[in-house]
Every structure is written in C-alpha cells, then in structure tokens.
Design a protein that fits this description.
It is a single chain. The protein is α+β, with helices and mostly antiparallel strands. Helix content is about 45%, strand content about 20%. The strands form eight sheets. A four-stranded antiparallel sheet has the order 1-28-27-26, covered by helices on one side. Strand 7 and strand 8 form a beta hairpin. Helix 17 runs antiparallel to helix 18 (about 605-620). The longest helix is centred in the C-terminal third of the chain and has 40 residues, at about 815-855. One of its GO terms (cellular component) is HOPS complex. InterPro entries: Clathrin_H-chain/VPS_repeat, Pep3/Vps18_beta-prop, Pep3/Vps18_RING_C.
C-alpha cells in the first residue's frame, strides 16, 4: 500500500518549481510572487482511501488518523506504517459516538458516546486493540479535553498524565488515564477522578473548548476555557507537580474571588479552541482562536503572570467583511484551523484562506485564496490539523483530502508593509533580497518623513541605492548626526577592495567629527560631558582596523584636516594610536617640551627614533637622554648612537654624559669598535684626564688586543703633553726605547717600571736599563744612586756602567761592586766545571751500555708464541724485542697497519716484495753474492721500519692513550646492543 503522505507529496510536486537564487533576484529585479505562475496558496490532494460507510468524524495527530463512520465503526490508521485497524465494538451498542478526542502525540484517544438517556466515555491507546470504558462514568457528556502536552508524557503511551475534561454541565474534571492502572482485576484505566472547578454556578453551561499549557520549563501554567458566551483564563504557579490532582492548585486561587471571564460573541456549538505553535513547540503558542457567530475570535498569546492574563488584545475577523464589503447575508463556517499567517475557514462548499493580518485598506479583501469542493464526495464535514507535522486535513462524508500551503506569505508581507509593520514584513522577507530591499526602502522613507533621521540613515546605509541621492537628502538637514551615522554604517558595508570609497567616506567622517569638536571648543565647551563623549566616539571610530589601514595610507590628508580645525591634542592622540611617534616627538621638540618627548621615547622604544632624535635631546637634557639610551641596552647599536652624539665642541656637562654612555657601551655592551674608543679617548683627554690612564691600563700592552688606534691616541696625548699616557701608548706600539726616553722626562721610577716590562727579551731589557743607568750617572752624577741602581737591575753589571762614569772617579766608589761581580763570575765558572764532569760521567755510562747490548742475546724456545696471533713463533719469520714481546713479521705488519701512515705500510710491502724476488733469483754464485748484498740492504731497511720498537711498548701505543676504545661512529650501535 502506497503511503498516503507520499501520494500527497507526489501530487503537489508537479505544480511547484524551485525558487530562483538570490543573485538572480538582485540582477533581474523580479518579485518571486510573479514567478509562481498563478499557483494557489491552497493545494489540495485527495487521499487514496475509500471508507466503507459515511465518515462522521476524523482526527489526525502525529501521522496517526482516527475516524468514525456512521455505523459506529472506528478506524485507526498509522500513516508511518501504512497500517489500518478496525474496531467495531460499538456496533451492537445503543450508544452513538458523539465526539473524538486525540492527544497531540497520537498516543491516547477518548471517545464520548451517548444516547438520549445516558452518556459514556471510552479510552484507548495505540497498543490497545479494543476500547476501555472509563470507570462507570455515566455523567454529563464530555464536550472538551485539555491534553497534557508535556514532552515527557510523549515518551510513553502508558499514561496520559494529568488532563482536564469539560462536560456539558460546566464542570471541569481532572483525571489521569492509562493502561498501567488496569491491574489487580480492577478493570479500570483511571488513576484518579476529581472535579476541580465548576463554571455553571448552578446553571448547566457546556464547556465548548478547554486547553492548558506550561510556560516553557517554568512552574507557571495557564488554562483556557470557552463557553457559548464567555472566555475564562486561569494563570498561576504549580509548585508541587507530584500532587494529584495537580491543576487543583491553580483553580483553588479562583474559588474565593469573583468570577473572572471575558465576554465574547456567541460561540458556535461546533466551535473548538484552536492554537498555533511556532516550530511545533507546544510550550510557546503564537496565538489562539475559535469560531463565533459573528466572526473568528483571534488573540495573540501574551502571558502576564502579575495580572493573571493570557492575552492583552484580540481581533474579531468578521464574516461580513471577509471580502472587504458589508455582507449581511453571510454564512457561519463549519470549522477552522490556523496556519502561520492565515486562518482556514471551512464552508459547506469551499475552503478559504483568510489573512490573519487585516489589510490597511478596510475595503480590501482579507481572503487570500479559496478552494471549491464538489459535492460528489458528500457534504464537507470538518477541517483539522496535525499539530506535529503541520499537515492540514479536510474530510467529507465519502473522501479525505490533504492540503499543503504554498508560499502563504506571498501577500502577507505587503499587508505588513502597507500597515507600516516593517519588522514583521522583514521577518517574512529575510530570504528574499528583492522584497527585503523594498521593505527597507519604505521603512527608511517612513523614518525620514517622520523626522526620525537617525533611524532612516541606519537603514539607508544598508540599501543598494544611489549613494549621492541619499547623501543629498541628509545634507539639506541642519543636523549633521544623521549624515554621520549614514556614512559610518555605509563604511561597515564596504569591502576591503573598495579602497577609494573607504578613503572618501573615512576622510568625510573625520571632517565631520573634527568640525563638531571645533564647534564645541568655539563655544567654550571643551570640558563638557558632550565634548568628552564626542571625543571618545571619535577615538573609537579611528581605532577600527579598516580606518587604521586608511590612515596609514593617507597620513598627510588626515593631519591636514585635523590641523585645519586646530585640534592639536587629537593629532597627537591619533599619531600615538598609529605609532607615529616620530611626528609626536618632533612636535614636542618644536614646543620645547623635552620632558614629554623623553617620556614618549622611554615608553615606546623604537631604535630609529633614538638615532633620529638623540642629537637634539642630548643637547637639551644630557643626563636624562643618556639614561634612556643606557636603559635600552643591546637594543641599540652603539656606533649609530655615538654618531648622533658627536658634537664639535661639547660643553663640560654634555661631554661627561657622552663619556658615561661610551663607558657603558665599552664595559657593558662589549663594544670594540675603534671609532667609539677613539672618541672616548679624545673626550678623556679634554674633559676627564684622570680616567685616561685607567682606561689605557685596562686595554693592556698588546697592540692586537687594544680596541683604539694607538697612533691616533699617541698624537692626541703629545698635543696635550700627557707624558705618562705617551709612555703607555709607546709601549703598546713597541717603541720601548722611546717609551723609556719619555718616561725619564717624567720620573726615573716610571722609566724603571717601563724597563722592567719586557721580561721575555733580556737583551731589550738590558738595553733599556742601560739607558736609565746612563741617564742616572750622567744627568745626576750620583755614584751612590748608580750603585743602588745596580742592586735593582739584575741584567746590568758593574762593567756595563763603568764607561758612563767620569774619569776622575776612583776605584773606591765601586770597589764593593767589582768584588761582588768577580765573586759572581767565580761561581759561574765553578758551576760550569761541575756540569762538564757530570756530562763526562754520563757519556761513560752510555758507552758501557752500548757494549753490553752488542753482546746481548735471547733464548727462543719452541714453545714461544706470537704475541698477536698466539701461534708458535718459530713456524714463520719473526721479530723479538728486549721487552720479551715476539711477533711474526706478518702479524706485526697487521698490528701496525691501523696506526701508522698509509705510505709507511706501502713501503713495508714494497720491501717485502723486493726481498721475496731476491730470494727467488738466487741461482748462481755471482748472482748470489750480488743478491745477498742487495737482500741485506733491503732486509736492513725493512727491520728499521718493523723492529725499531715494540708495538706494545713503544711510542705508537703511548700515543694512543687518549683514543677511546669505541669509535664515535660505532658507539650508538653498541649502546643499542647492550640495551
């Protein structure tokens, strides 16, 4: 059996085509309504179902259909499984089915039956194959049921949860039904049965409609009940949801107060209470309504827990004005149901779709579509809706139809637009750019005409309309805020590649902001709250990323705008925000605001800024500038900084600060640039000579180790007659004699110190000391001082200085020195004699050892083994050493091969080959004598290479003491093997 739902979808598919894309809408500028080609809103399809008898009632919930025929046969159809079940237990009964009640989830069914004398209620579920009587209920006829729409109840079909029943006498009963209560032979599906409220007040009044809902997940509940002339609403909290009866807690609050109801036109007898829910959420109804004799009562749900009301306003869609004209001869509909924007009314011959939004023109028709039905299937009975799926069902006596709403909002947005309900119109047009543009244009025009210029500007900025046209509209206004809002909003809609537009709008906005600020300053309101707020707004605008990019590319234009309005403070702020510190520092320097310039430089360190402004700042604030430079440390290149600090004739204060930075660069930054050291020396010479000698001593005496230019430093020191410094520099240059000569002009002690420095060169030291001695003897003519001089210098003897004494000096003045010198010579001669005797004895010992080695021998036993291969020694040619190690010739070569030069191994092999050839060619006596001679020479050469020393005890093995046992290349592999 083909699914009824599938048949319906296939039937509609052929009449509805896919909508065009948004791009097509924008490019071709057509309304999607026109593309529908006259497709009606109401699309009806007959269901492939033929009842065996006339249908009297039909309900659909969650694709579960229940219908009753005139012969009391009950059919239950599961559309999901295409399963039809027939229940005819009422065929033999005198009771007739009056009404069916099916819960929204399709799980529970109540059947109200009766005759002239009595009425009865039956209960069934999807799983029950037969009807269960609800206890022994024989009271008034049940006319309405308020189902429990809690989703937790949906998860099980065993119980209905608390529900409300309204009867023809005006009583409201709370009960809970379920198959789980039918146990212990009780034969009842009722857990409890309690009358909780009575509307009749002693006069039987039928309850036509009854519903209750919970507000979201809160504890707030509301109940609606309608009688022929009144609408009752009950709103309150339920704090104990486990209490039974549960809803009694709400009604208790209305027992002691006057009756509260809303007068409505007479409700038709077959009227029901209808709700429309958004997105199938049974906790959030959009609106509700019911049929009256004059029109459709429609009210939007608006819960007010304080005033205990469910709606605040309502509308009566009069039958006489459905077509926009007064019609006194109207027909009351048979039934109704809600869609999102329409109420569908069933008349005996047709179904009409009436817009829930009344048109702005009272004479316009409110009927958006109508569908006529033939009488071939019998008279039309009812129209109902599956709340879970949204499918609309229409049934006649002999047929069942299903409706589908096709683009039901096609006209509603226009109605909203004509009535000025722009937000509602935009909600409908959100997926249709062409419609949305029309709505926004109308809304913007409405705001502009009603002088809501700012709202109008915000909307115009999002429209695809002429920029010039909108700008001209706002330029004529005295107020500039709307044009500013329009430009700012327009800027948000521009893409990054619209660089020209972004630049134009940005510059215009900067001009507007600057002009507003200038006007406030001119009126002496520079400190007002309005000025502060405007500044903050301007700053926020300039801080946006898209503006920052524009500012970076249009610096001069923006500064010209700000300058034209005299806004210096904002120029500085803008420059700081965009890190244009160079411009700000230059401004501070022009204003002689050195403190601010230094603070900015200290807080925003950029190397190029220091190189640019150090020369200007150090002249005006030497100490502070140098302190900031030192604070930067290695971030700055000392050479570049010093280039900015070089001044032809610096003041004493400035020079001392420059010296401080140079000393920091040398001692802390390890700067070895020659020009830096030369500049420091020049400043020392001119302004701080006390530090010069310390600096030169720290630099040392090696010319390769000093960082300055010694020739340059020596020239400066000579120009300023700095003798001691000249001595030090001469030493660095290796001019020892000149250094001593300069030192003698300063003091003899300095000269002595200088002469004592070259300790490693005795000849030079002696020469330098002789210079000093000659100076002491000739210049001072002091014999005693000369004698003391001999005691201080160990390189000079009395005979070296005798030529310097004058001729009249007698031997008595240096007799002691001569004697001391002779004694020293005598000691040297005696020491040489002892050394000669020791050498003679050593030579004799060596001769005796050589003789003993010539006569030495070793005994080789047959059992002796090679120290390398551990085989018998005498089986092959071998070498033996005094240390008792013995090697086969081949083993010795093999052991030596890894540790000697490759050339040595090659020579050994060549000698072995020659020796082998000589042994083979030894045939006659003459040849043998020559071969023996050559063989001995070759053998002697081979022995010198192989037997020079023991491989295990000689220098080869000693030289390998620092070689690791495992090579680096093999270490990782061996390590892994051990792991």
């Amino acid at each position: 059996m083909i699914s009824i739902l599938d048949q319906f979808e296939q039937g509609v598919e052929s009449t509805f085509k896919s909508a065009p894309t948004s791009k097509q809408l924008l490019d071709e500028s057509f309304d999607r309504d026109e593309d529908l080609g006259g497709v009606p809103i109401l699309s009806k399809k007959k269901v492939n179902f033929s009842p065996s008898d006339k249908i009297t009632q039909l309900l659909v919930s969650n694709e579960y259909v229940v219908l009753v025929m005139v012969n009391n046969v009950l059919l239950r159809i599961n559309l999901k499984q295409d399963n039809i079940e027939e229940i005819d237990t009422l065929k033999t009964s005198s009771l007739k089915v009056k009404q069916l009640f099916l819960d929204p989830f399709g799980e529970h069914l109540l059947i109200s039956c009766g005759n002239i004398t009595s009425s009865q209620l039956f209960y069934a579920t999807k799983q029950l194959s037969k009807l269960k009587p609800v206890g022994k209920y024989q009271g008034s006829e049940i006319t309405s049921v308020a189902w429990n729409c809690d989703c937790r109840v949906k998860s099980t079909s065993s119980t209905t949860g608390p529900i409300l029943l309204g009867n023809s006498s005006g009583a409201i009963i709370e009960t809970q039904l379920g198959t789980e209560f039918d146990r212990f032979f009780q034969g009842s599906v009722v857990q409890y049965w309690k009358e909780v409220f009575d509307i009749s007040k002693g006069q039987p009044i039928p309850i036509i409609g009854l519903q209750y809902y919970r507000v979201g997940k809160s504890d707030l509940f509301y109940i609606l009940a309608i009688t022929p002339t009144k609408l009752y609403q009950f709103v309150d909290f339920i704090f104990n949801k486990d209490e039974r009866p549960m809803l009694q807690q709400i009604f208790n609050n209305y027992l002691t107060i006057p009756e509260r109801f809303y007068e409505v036109p007479t409700v038709v007898k077959h009227g029901k209470l209808h709700f429309y829910f958004l997105n199938n959420d049974f906790t959030v109804p959009k609106y509700f309504g019911f049929l009256t004799e004059l029109g459709v009562f429609v009210a939007e749900v608006d819960i007010n827990k304080d005033e205990k009301t469910i709606f605040s306003s309502h509308e009566l869609i009069e039958y006489s004005r459905l077509y926009g004209r007064d019609d006194d001869d109207f027909t009351v509909p048979l039934s109704m149901t809600f869609t999102r924007y329409h109420v569908l009314l069933l008349f005996p011959e047709r179904v009409i779709a009436v817009s829930l939004v009344a048109p702005a023109d009272r004479n316009a028709s409110q009927v958006m579509d109508e569908d006529y039905c033939s009488d071939s299937h019998g008279r039309l009975l009812n129209i109902t809706k599956d709340l879970m799926t949204g499918t609309i069902w229409l049934y006649a006596e002999r047929a069942v139809f299903r409706y589908k709403m096709i683009k039901e909002d096609r006209h509603v947005w226009k109605v909203y637009l004509d009535k000025g309900m722009f937000e509602e119109a935009k909600e409908i047009c959100i997926s249709n750019p062409h419609r949305m543009n029309q709505v926004l244009v109308r809304q913007a025009e409405h705001f502009f005409n009603s002088k809501q210029y700012e709202n109008s500007a915000l909307i115009y900025a999002n429209l695809n309309v002429s920029f010039e046209e909108i700008v001209l509209k706002f330029l004529h206004l005295n107020e500039k805020k709307p044009i500013k809002l329009f430009l700012m909003k327009k800027l948000d809609s521009l893409k990054s590649h619209d660089y020209t537009k972004i630049t134009m709008v940005t510059l215009w906005l900067i001009e507007l902001f600057s002009n507003e600020l200038a006007v406030l300053r001119n009126y002496k309101q520079g400190k007002s709250q309005e000025y502060t707020m405007l500044q903050e707004s301007f700053q926020h605008f300039l801080s946006r990323s898209i503006i920052q990019d524009c500012i970076r590319k249009n610096w001069e234009s923006i500064y010209d705008i700000l300058a034209s309005h005299g806004d210096v403070n904002f120029m500085i702020w803008l420059a700081l925000e965009n890190q244009d510190f160079k411009r700000v520092i230059q401004h501070y320097l022009n204003e002689e605001n050195i403190a601010e310039a230094l603070t900015l430089l200290d807080n925003h360190p950029f190397s190029e800024l220091f190189y640019t402004f150090s020369s200007d700042l150090v002249e005006k604030a030497p100490a502070q500038t140098v302190s900031i430079l030192i604070k930067q440390g290695q971030k700055l290149d000392p050479l570049k900084v010093i280039n900015t600090l070089i001044t032809p004739n610096p003041s004493e204060r400035l020079a001392l600060e420059i010296i401080r930075y140079l000393e920091y660069s040398i001692h802390c930054l390890n700067c070895h640039v020659e020009s830096v050291h030369n500049y420091l020396i020049s400043l020392y010479i001119k302004h701080n000579r006390d530090k010069l000698m310390n600096y030169l001593k720290l630099q040392g005496r090696e010319i390769t180790a000093v960082s300055y230019n010694p020739e340059f430093a020596l020239r400066l020191c000579r120009e300023h007659q700095l003798g001691e410094a000249c001595v030090q520099l001469s030493i660095v240059l290796g001019l020892w004699e000149a250094a001593v000569d300069l030192a003698l002009t300063v003091s003899v002690d300095l000269a002595k110190t200088t002469a004592s420095l070259p300790n490693n060169n005795m000849e030079l030291s002696k020469k330098l000391w002789l210079k000093i001695a000659q100076y002491v003897v000739k210049q001072n003519n002091d014999i005693e001082q000369a004698m003391r001089f001999l005691e201080e210098c160990k390189f000079i003897k009395i005979e070296d200085i005798l030529p310097f004494f004058p001729d009249f000096v007698t031997i008595d003045h240096f007799k002691d020195a001569v004697c001391s010198s002779l004694e020293e010579y005598n000691k040297d001669i005696q020491s040489l004699k002892e050394e000669m005797e020791d050498a003679t004895k050593s030579a004799e010992v060596i001769r005796s050892e050589i003789l003993s080695f010539r006569n030495g021998y070793m005994l080789i036993q047959p059992s002796n083994e090679c120290s390398s291969c551990q085989e018998q020694l005498v089986t092959k040619a071998f070498y033996t050493f005094p240390c008792s190690h013995c090697f086969h010739a081949e083993c010795l070569i093999k052991e030596m091969q890894p540790y000697v030069d490759p050339s040595t191994i090659t020579t050994i092999k060549d000698l072995q080959n020659q020796l082998s050839i000589l042994y083979q060619n030894n045939k006659d006596i003459t040849q043998s004598l020559e071969a023996i001679s050559r063989r001995d020479k070759v053998k002697e050469s081979l022995d010198k290479l192989l037997a020079a020393e023991c491989f295990f005890c000689g220098e080869i093995m000693i030289s390998l003491i620092d070689k690791p046992f495992i090579e680096d290349a093999d270490f990782e592999n061996i390590k892994q093997e051990w792991e």
